[in-house]
Amino acid sequence: MRHRLTLAGRAADVVGADAYRAFLKGRYYRRLGGESGLEKAAEELERSIDLAPHFAPAEALRLDPDLAEAHAADAIVKFCLAWDFDAAERAFSTYLELNDQDPIVLEWYIRFLTVTGRYDEALDRLASVRGFYTESPVIELLYGTIYEALGKESQSVAAYLAALSKAGVSPEDVNGLLCALSSWRGTGRATRSSF
């Protein structure tokens, strides 16, 4: 713990309190996830860089190359924003060597594995983090996505239905949604009013 406090103190001294505060807010919003969370995270991280241009995950890595969270942030940025899969793979690998316990980072790594077509690895990782998400639909959605990509329709549908159930969607709502999707597929076009 002392090491973390020392690193945080050094970072705040190097970049200034406002830039460091924006950085911390960016990390907070990144952990919330979702589209709005990631947008707010990007805004705060950009504000941090505007206030202290030399401050970014690379600067954190310069201060402490063994800081797993900096490698995780670097991997997520390279995967989601830069679409530099080789660099993202290296950063995720370094993170996993240092710390493979953060379920949020592991969720992003599973998404990375899925996007890069490494479905068996993604399924193995999903099994390892499932316990962290007992009430959340996130894991079931990821299972559904992977099973769909593998052409395992019944497993995919079961996973998606489990995700909807965990999200509080009633069976009647699911039936209505399925009917709407079936009707929509039959027309070959989608409009906002179709849903």
Question: In terms of topology, how is this protein built?
Answer:
Elements: H1 2-15, H2 17-32, H3 34-51, H4 57-63, H5 68-80, H6 85-98, H7 103-115, H8 119-129, H9 138-149, H10 153-166, H11 171-187
Structure description:
The chain has a domain of 55 residues. It is globular. It is built from eleven helices and no strands. The N and C termini lie far apart (50 Å). α4 packs antiparallel against α5. The N terminus and C terminus are likely disordered. It is 76% helix and 0% strand. With 195 residues, the chain is mostly helical.
Features:
single chain, 195 residues, mainly alpha, 11 helices, globular, disordered N terminus
Q: Into which percent range does the helicity of residues fall?
A: over 70%
| Number of DSSP-assigned strands | 0
Please report which band the strand proportion falls in: under 5%, 5-15%, 15-25%, 25-35%, 35-45% or over 45%: under 5%
Counting H and I runs of at least 4 residues, what is the number of helices? Answer: 11
End-to-end gap: 50 Å
Radius of gyration: 20 Å
Which segments are poorly predicted (pLDDT under 50) over 5 or more consecutive residues? 1-9, 188-195
Q: Report the order of strands and helices.
A: HHHHHHHHHHH
Largest sheet: none
Overall average residue pLDDT:
78
Gross geometry: globular
